[in-house]
Write a structure and sequence with these properties.
It comes from Fictibacillus nanhaiensis. Helix content is 18%, strand content 31%. It is α+β, with helices and mostly antiparallel strands. The chain has 2 domains: 105 residues, Tumour Suppressor Smad4 (Sandwich); 76 residues, Arc Repressor Mutant, subunit A. The relative contact order is 0.12.
């Protein structure tokens, strides 16, 4: 194992948020997948949307790489979908999502100087396009969120919803749009291309997101008989 290189689990049952998984030495891969009686992986999740062998992270010539193992629902690096079996180099602070954000991970190199990353994440002076409201900031490309300068770690679906509403800020977003964006894995053939998700499930997700955003939860407003909107002054 490597004592300076880690994968931090931000969201992914059965692990607690913030759990650290050290990388293996060169020549060995850290494999991520779904747990089962017949499948052995180094980091096993219980979500049915994670493939049995989903992705792997390994070191080569002193550099760290990630590779999707032809998973069904894909692996994304900083919101960019990876091609199966094509390795991509990792940099400290990179955000990895498995199965469209069902699992959310961060790659950390504790030996690298983290000052630039910290400033980008917590500085009160953010680029205009990343500011949502006073004290609440998002970097959508990195799926990073902070409140009053402190990082906020959300599950994949909560992050998906917040980023989607942010990209549509001050616009009403319909419930059907939310279903398509947040639950694409639940698309059912012959159902007019709308995922099999009830409005109660959407309402519950929004409720939990509002609670996690604390005093800024009121920025997400309900549009009666239509959907939701992220309202920014």
């Amino acid at each position: 194992m490597n004592d300076s290189l880690y994968i931090r689990i931000e969201a992914g049952d059965p692990y607690d948020t913030g759990s650290l998984m050290p990388l293996k030495p060169e020549g060995e891969a850290l494999v991520f997948g779904r747990s089962s009686q017949t499948n052995e992986t180094d980091v096993s999740f219980i979500s049915p949307y994670v493939s049995r062998k989903h992705a792997e992270i390994y070191m080569q010539d002193g550099q760290t790489f990630i590779r999707d193992l032809d998973s069904k629902h894909g692996t994304a690096l900083n919101n960019q979908l990876l091609e199966p079996h094509m390795p991509k180099q990792l940099q400290s602070g990179d955000v990895i999502s498995l199965a469209k954000g069902v699992i959310l991970l961060t790659y950390l190199n504790t030996q690298e100087d983290q000052s630039d990353l910290t400033m980008e994440f917590t500085s009160p002076i953010q680029p205009a396009e990343t500011q949502i409201t006073s004290g609440l900031h998002i970097i959508p490309e990195r799926r990073q969120i902070s409140i009053d300068g402190e990082p906020l770690f959300l599950s994949g679906k909560h992050t998906d919803l917040l980023v989607f509403l942010y990209r549509k800020k001050n616009q009403a977003v319909s419930s059907d749009e939310i279903k398509i964006q947040i639950w694409p894995e639940r698309m059912v053939a012959g159902s007019n291309d709308i995922p099999d998700v009830g409005n109660d499930e959407i309402n519950a997700l929004v409720y939990r997101l509002r609670k996690k955003l604390g005093p800024y939860g009121d920025s997400i407003v309900t549009v009666p008989r239509y959907g939701y909107m992220l309202q920014i002054n």
